[in-house]
Write the structure tokens for this entry.
Amino acid sequence: MRDSIVDRSFELSIDDQKTLLRLARTTIESGAQSGTATPVNVNDYPASLAVLASSFVTLHKNDQLRGCIGSLSPTQALVSDVAEHAYAAAFRDPRFPAVTEDEVPALHIEISVLTPQQPIDCSSEEDLLNQLNANQDGLTIEDGHYHATFLPSVWAQLPDKREFLAQLKRKAGLSSDHWSHHFKAYRYHTLSFAED
């Protein structure tokens, strides 16, 4: 059985990070040329990248978001997860048209590797806000079939805790002042790295 990324969280070497960034870029380049995702052979990569982990891949073009796809639960090897989400961020993010071959050189790629989510025991919005660590916590909220997440990097655009939570509720399809007894919140951290 593969190790969980949690056992080695925040220990990816610079070489491992560069390998994952190269993989994400070549996956997108190949996808733009062929229209299909290139399969990843986990055995071609070091054991440190074969750990079971979840990731998000975020694409920017001219400092504007161009795609972001990921998963919150680890279901596959980190290299496979990054390749799958790089392809999806470029070609399957429903908010954007598919990336074209001409756009690929202008893309800036960021990868975030997630620790497992931990539930936040909170009885009210104020209680949740008091427990949130700005600039550190990624946050997932759920209420019935409504759910959404913000990576810790979103704090750069929304540094105020109350506004961070309000925008996350809107992303989930809830009103900014929504609260119920069924409301659930989870925190996680990320190891994030990007192309130069």
Remarks:
- The radius of gyration is 17 Å.
